[in-house]
Design a protein that fits this description.
The protein is of the alpha/beta class. It is 33% helix and 24% strand. It has 2 domains: 12-129 and 285-365, FAD/NAD(P)-binding domain; 139-281, FAD/NAD(P)-binding domain (3-Layer(bba) Sandwich), CATH 3.50.50. α1 runs parallel beside α9 (339-357). It starts with 11 loop residues before the first strand and ends in a 7-residue tail after the last helix.
């Protein structure tokens, strides 16, 4: 190149969505391609902080303060050679290679940043999933969702307010006044129920003893004949037995047909009174992805991708995590929306983007199912681990709890590195001994 020639433009790689997969990917892209000056890396997200989504049930129950575990995107970007742009994706101009962002509003609803377009050369869509209410009457109006930190905190606030109100009155006075109905017998619903059971005991210990723990009934309502549909029957049975020991009422084979302000009604005519209702009965990709700029999507708005994780119609657009519909040839189906899927897809997408910039052929993604674990708080953890040598192995108790906790540490390790994770573990050890065991405000 002639000395007077302009420097070649570095390709712009944009990752939309700072969830488990998106944040791991953009951090590793920054520390490889960004640090080496081979590409400009950008993360776009509607919020300014990240918290691992599988922890939101603990935030909702108050057994975890989100501010203790959240990560600031701006700080992460500064430390890992990428740029953070706040914004919510609403559309896509594939012809001009631009992501369309909605206006950014403050807490008062006033515009902070106008709507704008952000350019890309390679785009990775990793916007996750949201709850799917299936259009059932009353769900959107009367149920709480746990898709975001704000929603989890809102549930915790409403639950605490109901608890304080009942305590001031000398105890629960009406049927269902403090009861919680959780629709969905998957991991989120089960884990939330166990955390709420633990929280009721803690609140009583902190002096709110006008409300007795037995005054609060926690319900799990599942349309399938067993909990944890799709997982081994022995895992479902072990979970049901533990929930029964905790006094949590499980309603199997009950499909919800209506939700009102006072109760949940199922197809069999059963009416379950509850002051708070949580919807955890299914997921879909965000609605704006439906046929986004002509991209192929499925019935729950997921972007259809090839084995390389590139969209079926555009080689410069990748999709990973819950918002992508990725074939699973070994099962003649599709990769399930799990944290382990997002982690694996982030790793392959890093490799494939690097290969794409070097003019090499891309590699195919093969999902490795390492099993599933369900935590019932301090009471128990059950699950199954899978591997080439051992097949499927049922684990529970302390071993399962250790493995469950290690999943979060692996996520932290990927985005923070071993040094910071070690320091966090030390600080958390002391912090938990200085603060209440439940968020009280």
């Amino acid at each position: 190149m002639n000395a007077s020639s302009p420097a070649a433009k570095r390709p712009g790689i944009v990752v939309v969505g700072g969830g488990a997969g998106g944040l791991e990917l953009v951090t590793r892209l920054g520390n490889t391609l960004g640090k080496a000056g081979r590409a400009d890396i950008t993360l776009i997200d509607a919020t300014r902080t990240h918290i691992w989504k599988p922890l939101l049930h603990e935030v909702a129950a108050g057994t975890l303060d989100s501010h203790d575990d959240e990560l600031d995107y701006l700080a992460q970007a500064s430390s890992n050679h990428f740029r953070f742009v706040p914004g919510s994706m609403t559309g896509l101009d594939r012809g001009n290679k631009q992501v369309r962002l909605a206006p950014l509003l403050d807490a008062r609803g006033e515009e902070v940043m106008p709507s704008r377009d952000y350019p890309y050369d390679i785009l990775v869509i990793a916007v996750g999933s949201i709850c799917n209410d299936f259009g059932i009457t009353g769900v959107a109006e009367h149920c709480q969702f746990l898709d975001t930190t704000e929603q989890a905190e809102d549930f915790q606030t409403r639950w605490m307010e109901a608890y304080f109100h009942a305590h001031a009155l000398g105890g629960a006075r009406e049927s269902g006044q403090l009861d919680v109905a959780i629709v969905g017998g998957g991991a989120t619903g089960i884990e939330l129920s166990a955390q709420l059971h633990q929280a009721t005991r803690l609140l009583s210990a902190y002096g709110l003893d006008n409300v007795k723990p037995d005054d609060i009934r926690i319900h799990i309502i599942e349309a399938a004949p067993s909990l944890l549909p799709g997982l081994p029957e022995r895992l479902s049975t072990a979970t049901c037995q533990q929930l029964a020991r905790l006094g949590i009422e499980v309603h199997l084979g009950e499909r919800v047909v209506e939700v009102t302000r006072q109760a949940v009604t199922t197809h069999s005519g059963r009416v379950i009174p509850a002051a708070l209702k949580v919807w955890a009965a299914g997921v879909k990709a965000p609605d704006f992805l439906h046929e986004l700029a002509g991209l192929e999507t499925n019935h729950i708005n997921q972007i259809k991708v090839r084995q390389t994780l590139q969209s079926t119609l555009d080689d410069d657009i990748f999709a990973i995590g819950d918002c992508c519909c990725c074939p699973w040839p070994e099962k003649n189906g599709f990769v399930p929306p799990r944290a382990q899927s997002a982690h694996q897809q982030a790793s392959l997408t890093l490799t494939n983007i690097t290969r794409k910039l070097s003019g090499q052929s891309l590699l195919d993604y093969r999902y490795q199912d390492y099993g599933s674990l369900v935590s019932l708080g301090r009471y128990s953890t059950v699950g199954n681990l899978m591997g080439n040598l051992m097949g499927s192995v049922m684990i529970e108790g302390l071993m399962a709890r250790f493995v469950y906790l290690s999943l979060y540490k692996m996520h932290q390790w990927a985005i923070l590195g071993p040094g910071r994770v070690t320091m966090l573990m030390v600080s958390n050890f002391f912090r938990k001994r200085l603060r209440p065991r439940i968020k009280l405000h």
